[in-house]
Amino acid sequence: MAKNQGTPLVDLRNISISFGGVQAVDDVSIDLYPGEVVGLLGHNGAGKSTLIKILAGAYRMDSGEIWINGEKADIKTPADARDYNIETIYQTLALADNLDAAANLFLGRELTTRLGLVDDATMESETRKIMARLNPNFQKFSVPVSALSGGQRQSVAIARAVYFDAKIVIMDEPTAALGVHETEMVAEIIKELKAQGLGIFLISHDTREMMALCDRVSVMKNGALVGTERVEDVTEDDILSMIILGKNPKREAA
Amino acid sequence: MSDATQDAPAHPGTTQTGKTAWTKFLTATEIDTRLIGMVAALLIIWTGFHLYGVIVNDFGAFLTPRNLWNLSVQTSSIGIMACGMVLVIITRHIDLSVGSILGFCAIIMGTVQVNILPQFLGLGHPAIWIITVLVGIAMGACIGAFQGALIAYGAIPAFIVTLGGLLVWRGSAFLVARGETISPVDETFSLLGGGPYGAIGATGSWIVGLIACAAVVLLVLNGRRQRTKFRFPQHPVWADTFIAVVGCAVAIGAVLLVNSYPWPRGIVRRYTQAEGIEIPEGGLFISHGFAIPVLILLAVGIVMTVLLRRTRFGRYVFAIGGNPEAAALAGINTQWMTVKIFAIMGGLAGLSAVVASARLNSATNALGTLDELYVIAAAVIGGTSLAGGVGTVFGAILGALVMQSLQSGMVLIGFDAGMQQVVVGSVLVLAVFLDILYRRNSK
Ligand SMILES: Nc1ncnc2c1ncn2[C@@H]1O[C@H](COP(=O)(O)OP(=O)(O)OP(=O)(O)O)[C@@H](O)[C@H]1O
Ligand SMILES: [Mg+2]
């Protein structure tokens, strides 16, 4: 397999952001190629979510650059990120609890009739189609998502990322609330998206899962990047020691 | 339960067939129990006041065409604003300034139509009322937008901004008019407040009623067509028929009611003299028909319902109410939405000022005092949750009718002002408590 030649899909360069006195992300550079899954690992509070929220337009970085497809991108709002075909599944899921699955899936991008009115029937019908693919057991289409289980909510959030023609998908702990079966399903979706040539940033605390799904993993500690390695070059123990010690054993050895 | 294979969630535990039939009825017709509760409350209030009159005063004055017609007119002003308050409360805000905005807009409109426009256009010019109404609505919308901007971009809580507004606009109304009453308003303008001439008569009311019936039937049929087209579970025919029949019955009943309230004799005499008509033996029965402010409320209710349920704007209102952070992450400009929502609220307060000052035939700086409480109560009684994310325009209008029924009923049976305040205040608290119980149980 060719090792990531050409222009990266996403190139995050020297990203920094602080909240008050906390340096949440400290000069981090990561890139992502088409058809690649890059995993982000690190302790709670390491800055993983904050980093990807900058790419998603939810936060504005203090310094750094975002390059997409070799062009410098200006992402100030979530809407800007969408214009770059970036879709995000947030750790908090970010669903409007009082709306149903279809309304959440299309939130901000509602389908409309010729008169410019929201076309709920078509949206529900589309939602049924995509859910039939992602989670065939899902039946609760006409209730607010507050009435759904954690896993069902997760599948709505995933459907939102998959439905629109994303080029870049960000998944912040997409399997945290899921059972074994559903976790398996998310893994399948990730593989499918990867096969379609999308680039995926995946955040998870499950090292084994990350070794199985990712092409490369990046480890963060206290806002800084410890290192990025191809999964075939490292063992699970190497990764764990990177997370815990904040040192890159391979580089140390060399 | 072999026939319970419908899509409705099955209740395996229920063995009483009575209960099942009732739940089935509610599910099939998609009527929520809160609506039934509100209609029941309304009926209890109405018959209660009527019977009280019958027993204590030997005359039930409440359930008469005259009183119910007046009730409809009185409800309009509060109802129009309640439609806007629904948006405000759904997005987790509050607007305490609507009564004062109403008073301020009324004074501005009074000044415009009495002191300014006649100088340029001449007294009674047909454009006066139009310009006045537009000025009033625009003034309200600007005030609302300004307050909305302070809330959205200044991050000042809505409670504080509009509490300030409550004083600022009331005080401004006083300053502009120096405490004087401005009257009489333009003649055409005054029709917008109702009264015998400000109603559309028997034929007009029938036309409105029949259009309403046609609309109900078309909506039901369109719903069926959509569900068939997308292969969603269809409602049973009887349930849709029931909805259509009830809808038409309400429309026709309302027409019969407003048409059975005749013009007073004095007005009939003046009218016939002016028109040169002979009054036949036994008097002339001229129906009021729907009052214009009621039609304004109806129009506002329809427009706001479509806005809330069928447009992106409305969808975003609910999304912001349900989870502001999620709405922002979905790319919705929540701050600009807040400005727009408060602008709509202000514009509706301006429209309400039209109705209220036209009805009084004058503008005073006290107009609309305490209206904010009635408006908020109407929205909350109508099922708008103060926690945000939930509410309907239709419910708010019904809520306005409930509040106004209470108020007029107490005036009618001679409760004094102190007692009225005690009752209205208690009802508001009780309504919120019932709302909390209702939500807890429906979880
Ligand atoms: N909006 C915010 N305001 C202030 N501090 C913040 C904010 N968001 C994140 N932080 C801080 O930034 C640091 C990184 O947080 P972040 O959510 O990125 O961690 P994480 O790596 O995603 O952790 P987890 O695995 O627990 O999700 C933390 O110290 C956190 O307290
Ligand atoms: Mg996180």
From TrEMBL, chain A:
Predominant location category: membrane
GO CC list: plasma membrane
Topology in the lipid bilayer: Peripheral membrane protein
A UniProt-annotated Pfam family: ABC_tran
Localization terms from the record: Cell membrane
Gene3D superfamilies: P-loop containing nucleotide triphosphate hydrolases
Keyword terms: ATP-binding, Cell membrane, Membrane, Nucleotide-binding, Repeat, Sugar transport, Translocase, Transport
Residues in ABC transporter domain copies: 10-247
SUPFAM superfamilies the record matches: P-loop containing nucleoside triphosphate hydrolases
The UniProt record lists the keyword Transport: yes
One Gene Ontology MF term: ATP hydrolysis activity
PROSITE patterns referenced in this protein's UniProt entry, alphabetically: ABC_TRANSPORTER_2
Protein name: Sugar ABC transporter ATP-binding protein
Organism: Palleronia pontilimi
From TrEMBL, chain B:
One annotated GO molecular function: transmembrane transporter activity
Main subcellular localisation: membrane
Protein's cellular compartments: Cell membrane
Coiled coil: none
Residue spans crossing the bilayer: 35-56, 68-89, 101-121, 127-146, 158-177, 197-221, 242-263, 283-308, 315-335, 341-361, 373-398, 418-438
Phylogenetic lineage: Bacteria, Pseudomonadati, Pseudomonadota, Alphaproteobacteria, Rhodobacterales
InterPro entries: ABC_transp_permease
Pfam family, one: BPD_transp_2
Name of the protein described by the UniProt record: Xylose transport system permease protein XylH
